[in-house]
Amino acid sequence: QVPLVESGGGLVQAGDSLRLSCEASGRTFSRETMGWFRQAPEKEREFVAAIRLSGGSTLYTDSVKGRFTISRDNAKNTVYLQMNSLKPEDTAIYYCAASSKYYSRTYLYSKDDVYDYWGQGTQVTVSS
Q1: Which of left, alpha, beta for 63 (phi over 0: left; psi -120 to 50: alpha)?
Q2: What pLDDT, in 10s, does the model give residues 53-89?
Q3: Residue 37: closest CA among 4, 13, 14
Q4: Quick one: DSSP state of residue 111?
Q5: Rg of the Cα trace of the chain?
Q6: With contact defined as beta carbons under 8 Å apart, do 83 and 68 qualify?
Q7: Nearest to 83 by CA among 54, 55, 48
Q8: d(Cα 93, Cα 2) in Å, to the nearest integer?
C-alpha cells in the first residue's frame, strides 16, 4: 500500500494556477520532511520544493521561487504545492515524497535519495 497519495494535477494554460495535494494515508510512518519532485518527458527527476513538518521551514529550486508555495497541514497529514504563474516548462509528473531522516542542513532535502516513501505521481500539463 502506497502511503502517499497525490492529487490536483491537470491541464491548464500558461499563467494559470494549480494546487497539488499529498496525503499521507494508511499506516503511520515517521516523517521529518516532505518534498515535491517532478519529472518531465525524457528528463531526469528534479527537486521542486520541501518543507519540514516541524517548524515549517521550506526549500525551493530556483526556477519555482516566487511562483510555487509549499505548505502543510499536520492535522490532516497533508502537504500542498500551490503553483501560480505556470509555464509550459512546468509540465511534468509531480511526485510527493517523505523523508524520515533529520538533517540540520535543509539543502540536503533537495536530494531524492534522502526520501523513504514516494507517491504514484500526478500529471501537470501547461499549454502555451
Answers
A1: alpha
A2: 888 899 999 999 999 999 999 888 899 999 999 999 9
A3: 4
A4: S
A5: 14
A6: yes
A7: 48
A8: 17
